[in-house]
Design the sequence.
């Protein structure tokens, strides 16, 4: 026995392949897969019980497995048992059956068919939206089909799943179903009913199910078989038609639904993408003459940002996080001997998060998929739908469905976070750093953590934990040269005089930072970095003279308002600040208040202008600011400067909202509103929502 175990569990070691010995069971696949590749590299072995499995993120090997040597690696894992009708579905069936069924479905998603499906999509969308309005989806439990389809793939890691994965040979003796029999029966009955109705009434619906029905022997038997019926052997049987239908329901429902879910969340949390998409919708689908929006298949293909956005969503959140191939014969892969049936895992999520494949893989950056950058995507590193002969058959349909639904939704709704919206972990960490950065004093940090902890909001409690963790870190981040600030939610900006202004354009606007003395260059850069992370186009003018400042201000003053595409404008002067003058060593001096005066409210009023169409009204405002730095620059350290600023913040709580940056100028303060504020009545931390005006 020990020899047998030794023999089994040294399978990968003997082939010189690193082995992941972590206990994978209990962990979601995508996490276990990602961890193991980050730790051991691109080819990693592990064991499911005694069975050796190989996980691969090497693009060259992936190409071989999925494309060039597909015939050797064509099988999926036999998840469904033979007694389950879904075992006849494309995804689950064995290679021989798969070849026949996939050939019959090869024309299921041609452009012509997709176009024919658009009216069905439209109808479904309208009904879904009507359902949402009437709260019909508020009680999904009342709809057994909906609940069964939705929960079908929620693998509960119960005994059956465990046996299927770890002791598949047991199925030779007992029939172990992979899917819940009761739920599956509900789906089977519904599909059977629909198909029987269609066949009996000889109805043709331009959808996928019809494709299977038309390719079946079943179709020939109701009610009058066509005279020239081709009764060839390759037709689908009744159980195969049902198998396809359940398969498509399962493969097509949760996958697209979960993408749409994440899309709405991203849009709510990163509103700049909402603005960008609306712009593109407006530019592509809006016809000025008729004042109408019209969408069709071709137009949807001509929206590069929409395409890139959806691709990036599917990079960070691929619905299917790993695919598998099992060799159909004993074979070799780059010299590695693989016995027939060895599970080969291609962990799509780990592939998408590999820094070798995508720079800053945790950052959400749709720009990676814009046409100009597509060449940077290495082949076989981005596989949300897999690739090769056995890739997702519904790929084109799914993308069309996502694009269509998203555009329709954006034309009607704006997505805003609500109290239940969980922040992304990444955002959370950054948010906490912001507080850490700007509250500085550890007691403040603790106080804030306490307040967040005590609020009854899950997201706030997570933020509290992160904040505490941050607060323990040594040395304090405030002394680091890298300001790590990312106010994802900064959606408004205000100063003493302007009141709150919407600020969610992309970019938010311009930030011009003039620094007049070389000793303060570093500080200016840091503020430049802050504004950049606040999504401004930030420019730092080093060695700025008053002449340069005036020249830039004149340039701005003469720029037509319509040429300016941001919501906010910030000008910051960093200099000696002595007697509220700016200039220092670089030349003549000028009172900051004189510069500010050039940007008085009257001038700014000209910058408010309406834009007709989808976007609604965009408020553009500019504000000249000078900053505490002008007054406190002799502290020469941002840390001390901010300490001073915080002291002022504490002294002067004019607004009950906790500003992320509050800068004291000669006569202006500035607030970036991240969306979190302290409610003065309840003293709770709350999240604020802003509503854009849409027609
Ligand atoms: C965002 C949506 C979707 C994603 C991310 C997705 C992804 C995938 C992936 C990764 C596979 C595995 C391919 C492989 O093993 O190499 C797959 C297979 C499959 N998908 Fe999709 N899918 C989506 C939507 C759909 C839709 C809408 C349908 C049908 C209408 C569909 C039908 C199928 C079928 C039938 C298979 C099995 C293909 C075969 O084994 O030949 N999928 N999908």
Sequence:
């Amino acid at each position: 026995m020990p020899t047998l175990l030794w023999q089994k569990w040294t399978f990968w070691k003997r082939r010189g392949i690193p082995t992941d010995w972590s206990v994978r069971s209990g962990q979601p696949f995508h996490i276990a897969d990602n961890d193991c590749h980050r730790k051991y590299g691109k080819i990693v072995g592990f064991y499911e019980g005694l069975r050796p499995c190989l996980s691969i993120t090497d693009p060259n090997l992936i190409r071989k497995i999925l494309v060039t040597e597909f015939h050797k690696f064509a099988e999926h894992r036999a998840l469904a048992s033979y007694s389950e009708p879904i075992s006849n579905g494309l995804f689950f069936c064995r290679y021989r059956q798969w070849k026949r069924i996939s050939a019959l479905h090869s024309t299921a998603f041609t452009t012509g068919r997709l176009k024919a499906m658009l009216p069905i999509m439209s109808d479904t969308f309208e009904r879904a939206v009507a359902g949402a309005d009437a709260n019909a989806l508020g009680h999904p439990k009342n709809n057994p089909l909906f609940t069964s389809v939705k929960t079908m793939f929620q693998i509960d890691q119960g005994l059956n799943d465990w046996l299927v994965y770890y002791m598949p040979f047991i199925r030779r003796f007992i029939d172990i179903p992979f899917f819940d029999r009761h739920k599956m029966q509900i789906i089977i009955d519904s599909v059977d009913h629909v198909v029987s109705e269609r066949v009996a009434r000889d109805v043709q619906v331009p959808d996928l199910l019809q494709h299977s029905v038309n390719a079946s022997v079943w179709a020939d038997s109701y009610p009058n078989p066509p005279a020239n019926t081709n009764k060839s052997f390759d037709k689908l049987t009744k159980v195969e038609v049902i198998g396809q239908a359940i398969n498509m329901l399962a493969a097509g429902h949760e996958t697209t639904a979960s993408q749409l879910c994440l899309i709405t969340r991203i849009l709510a949390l990163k509103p700049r993408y909402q603005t960008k998409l609306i712009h593109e919708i407006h530019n592509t689908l809006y016809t000025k003459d008729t004042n109408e929006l019209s969408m069709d298949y071709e137009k949807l293909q001509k929206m590069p940002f929409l395409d890139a956005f959806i691709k990036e969503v599917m990079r960070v959140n691929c619905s299917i996080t790993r695919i598998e191939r099992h060799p159909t014969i004993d074979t070799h892969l780059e010299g590695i001997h693989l016995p027939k049936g060895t599970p080969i895992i291609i962990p799509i999520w780990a592939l998408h998060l590999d820094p070798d494949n995508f720079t800053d893989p945790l950052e959400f950056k749709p720009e990676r998929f814009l046409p100009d950058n597509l060449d940077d995507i290495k082949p076989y590193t981005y596989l949300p739908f897999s690739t090769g002969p056995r890739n997702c058959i519904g790929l084109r349909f799914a993308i069309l469905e996502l694009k269509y639904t998203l555009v329709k939704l954006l034309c009607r709704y704006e997505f805003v976070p609500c109290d239940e919206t969980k922040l992304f972990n990444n955002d959370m960490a950054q948010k906490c750093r912001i507080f850490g950065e700007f509250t500085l004093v550890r007691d403040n940090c603790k106080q804030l953590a306490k307040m967040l902890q005590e609020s009854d909001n899950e997201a706030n409690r997570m933020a509290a934990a992160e904040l505490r963790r941050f607060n323990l870190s040594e040395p304090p981040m405030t002394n680091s040269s890298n300001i790590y600030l990312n106010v994802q939610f900064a959606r408004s900006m205000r100063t003493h005089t302007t009141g709150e202004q919407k600020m969610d354009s992309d970019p938010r606007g311009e930030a011009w930072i003039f620094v007049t003395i070389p000793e303060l260059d570093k500080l200016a850069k840091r503020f430049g970095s802050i504004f950049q992370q606040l999504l401004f186009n930030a420019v730092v003018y080093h060695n700025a003279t008053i002449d340069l400042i005036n020249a830039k201000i004149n340039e701005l003053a003469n720029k037509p308002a319509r040429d300016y595409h941001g919501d906010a404008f910030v000008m910051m002067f960093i200099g000696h600040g002595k007697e509220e003058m700016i200039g220092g060593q670089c030349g003549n001096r000028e009172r900051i208040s004189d510069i500010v005066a050039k940007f008085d409210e009257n001038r700014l009023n000209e910058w408010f202008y309406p834009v007709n169409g989808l976007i609604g009204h965009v408020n553009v405002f500019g504000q000249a600011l000078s900053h505490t730095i002008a007054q406190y620059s002799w502290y020469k350290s941002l840390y001390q400067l901010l300490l001073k600023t915080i002291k002022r913040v504490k002294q002067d709580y004019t607004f009950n909202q906790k500003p992320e940056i509050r800068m004291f100028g000669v006569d202006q303060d500035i607030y970036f509103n991240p969306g979190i504020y302290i409610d003065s009545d309840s003293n709770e931390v709350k999240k604020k929502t802003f509503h854009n005006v849409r027609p």
